[in-house]
Amino acid sequence: MKNIKQLYSFIFVSIVLAIAYLFFSTAQIQQILNENVESIFIKEAKSFAQNINNNIKTVIKEDPYRELKENQALQKKMEHALSIIINDTFKYIFVLYRDSNGNYRYLLDGSKEDKARFNQRLSVDKKLWSSVYDTKVPLIINQKELDNLWITYLKPVVLNNKTVAIIAIDFSTQLPQSISNAIEPLNKIFIYIFIAIGVLIVILIYQSIRSIKIKKESITDPLTQAYNRNYLRDLLSNIDITKYQIMMLDIDHFKQVNDNYGHKAGDYILASSAKIMQNEIRDEDILIRFGGEEFLIFIKKSSVNSYLAYNIAQRIRKKIEESRFSYEDKELQITISVGVSCQPEHFKTVSLAIKYADEMLYKAKREGRNQVISQSTNDTTLLKKTNTKSINDVKEALEEQRVVCFFQAIYNAESLTVVKYEALVRIKEKDGSITSPADFLESITYTNVYNDLTKSVLESVFTQIKEKKIQISTNLNFSDILDNKIFDLIIHELELHKELSSWLIIELLEYELIEEITIVQSRLLRIKEYGVKIAIDDFGSGYSNYSIFKLLPIDILKIDGSLIKDIDMSETSYKITHSIILLAKELGITTVAEFVHSKEVLETVKMLHIDEVQGFYLAKPSPNIL
Amino acid sequence: MKKIILLLLLVPLLFASDIKTEQKIYGLIIHALLPQKTEIRVWTDSQSPTNIFCLIKDVRCVNNPENADFLLLSKKKNIQTKGIKFATNIQLLEAEKDTIVGGFFWEKGRPNILFLRKNLQKHNITLPKSMQEYIEDEL
To answer: What is the per-residue burial (b if ≥16 Cβ within 10 Å, else e) of A298-330?
Structure first.
């Protein structure tokens, strides 16, 4: 459709240019014809003047005034000769001399009617005539300012190196006028065509403006003047996401504004907030009302500031927090929460990047509202890190089989014998150094590279299980279980290693109770059909929720390191851990204490009858299982 | 001054038709011949140029030649008047050269002005310097 429009535009412009070219060519032809006609007549006039000059020189010896005055027969004879040349084109042929006062007077006049007397004065342009007289150089005078004349050709008569007279030939022709008359209808047609094109252009401009206005209305939210979801739909199919960062903004407690002050107040808050957002972003950024009180902003990336969207989000948040919204006689104060995705190009689709920003937004909401959480700030260390791997680094590492698993032993608390291992993914750098997952997982989340990495880890784990015949756990996120591709990949790997599956333990992180918990539940049950055990990692921190025991088929509970590391010192940590262990035992769930970093910690958890222990005091992660 | 007059004569020529040119030239001539008059009464025997004069500043066209200060003649006429006679063609000027002060006519497509010295003297007329170049002692 766009190409057809371009084709129409091209054809239209081509036609206009062709007509313009034709118009100017016609004008040029007319000019050339006129010039040619002029040059033909000038040539003829020159020839006549030369003949007259020759004739005068043969009969006049020295002083034409005196000689012609004394010899009237000669005068008549010569005037007769001049009159022969006169016709409709060469109207006046006469010879003048300059008297002592500088006035020009007749010597000869070839006119048949209104013939001037000998020595009669004629008013001429003295300046031009005198220049011919003085310079002895012929001159062509264009007499367009006079209605009756066209061109005057002046030729000096020089005797004894002295100008004694000037031969003047006035000529005009209707030929240029005839040419002009012949071309006139064509010129009129051109004028009509240009008028028609002008009208057409005006109509097109009017229609285009109208069309733009209608289109703008269809993609603009009338309340906030931000773009609406219609625009977003088009944008998603065209946007080059590598050039943008994404932020999702939501007005905190907006429902309360509507409930307490009415919908009009709510509308006012929405419009005012959108105005602040619009003022704080640049022209190249895109503000979209995502729905309700939610806004989406695409921030054009800056080459110097990787966290531009985060900075702008903070600016908007602060500005809105500081603003006082006066509606009728009430003064309202609002705040916003913002989720930012600084590296949306790491996602497979723009929609996923938006979803991620949305997740960050909900995180901001859950963590108290009136704050900005970005892809980077959410990972509390990422902002400070300089060695974060890019997606290409991880891809390259996978291709070069530099993605490896380290294994950390987990011991039976009583016997202190190794009962299983936890597989921990690492990238082996080209220089031999080891990069931990915190430096590369963030950049590959939701990408195909993450899927490839998961596959690689599972294969590596199964290789070790096959070789060592020992239980090995591997870490996955809840979102991995929900991701169809990753889930299919897990099932595919379990099918491939059916006989080894019972040695596999899947440790789940980020176990917040999500809406799709039933899907997670059914998928975990499906995984468990292969004999796989399910462990919950880092229990006792973050989103720990006891209802998880009711909803998910849990075999192992790994108590979070933040409780274990100071369990020998903190009474609270001790009591919490104790209660978790008691509960787990009641539910028949194996307990594991992570972060056992000292003898004192080990002794304390043993006292609490923990089943298994893991930590640097006992064993550090190693590339090989001993 | 000559240049100014020339300019006055030529510049309008660039933009105006011959009739308008004539009108301007007649205006200059009439005011040069009768500088002391605040209103100049003009009579002409030709119908066509009447309107030309009527539009000149400080000029009023009259029907009776005897009341005219300035008479513009194209034909020989026996008119007893103290007014200044002026010819519109060279033939009349030649024929009435004893009484006619001057003439303005088109010769070879060019506007020509001519004043006869002895007749100017008869009327005690001193032309401005810009017009003096058009004075002829005799025809």
So the answer is: bbebeeeeebbbbebbbebbeebeeeebebeee
Nearest to B136 among A121, A148, A170 (CB): A121
Which H/E stretch holds residue B110? Answer: strand B110-116
Query: Could you read off the pLDDT of A451-478 as tens digits, one per residue?
Result: 889 989 999 999 999 999 999 999 998 8
How many independent structural domains does chain A possess? 3
Query: Is this complex's ipTM strictly greater than 0.85?
Result: no
b/e map A184-205, b = 16+ CB within 10 Å: eeeeeebeebeeeeeeeeeeee
CATH number at residue A247: 3.30.70.270
Digit-coded pLDDT (tens) for A91-146: 899 999 999 989 999 999 999 888 899 999 999 999 999 999 999 999 999 876 55
Partners of residue B112 in chain A, C-beta under 8 Å = 121-123
Looking at per-residue confidence, does B77 or B111 come out higher?
B111
- Report chain A residues whose CB lies below 8 A from the CB of B10: 145
**Are A149 and A271 within one domain?**
no
Q: Is residue A14 part of a domain?
A: no
Which B-chain residues 3-42 have CB contacts (< 8 A) with chain A?
Answer: 10, 13-14, 17-18
A284 occurs within a structural domain: yes
Higher pLDDT, A106 or B75: A106
CB contact under 8 A, A121 and B112: yes
Q: Could you tell me which chain A residue has the CA closest to the CA of B104?
A: A123
CATH of range B2-136; options 3.90.1070, 3.40.50, 1.10.3210, 1.10.10:
3.40.50
Instruction: Please give the Cα distance from B76 to A456 (Å, whole number).
Output: 128
For residue A459, what are the domain limits? 391-613
What's the rounded Cα separation, in Å, for the pair A133 and A154?
A: 9
Nearest C-alpha in B relative to A101: B133
Q: Smallest CA–CA separation between B62 and chain A, in Å?
A: 30
Could you tell me which residues come within 8 angstroms of residue A136 by beta carbon, excluding any fewer than 6 positions away? A156, A158, A163
Q: B25 versus A526: which is more confidently predicted?
A: A526
Residue B114 touches chain A, beta carbons under 8 Å: yes
Q: Would you call B109 and A146 a contact, using CB atoms and an 8 Å cutoff?
A: yes
Residue A198 inside a domain? The answer is no
Measured between its terminal Cα atoms, the distance across chain A in Å is 67
- The residue ranges of chain A whose pLDDT is under 50 are 377-386
Question: Do A265 and A374 fall into the same domain?
Answer: yes
* Residue A106 near residue A119 (C-beta atoms within 8 A): yes
Q: Token pair 């190196």 is at which residue?
A: A161
User: Cβ separation of B109 and A120 shorter than 8 Å?
Assistant: no
Angstrom distances, CA of residue A385 to CA of A376, A435, A526? 10, 12, 39
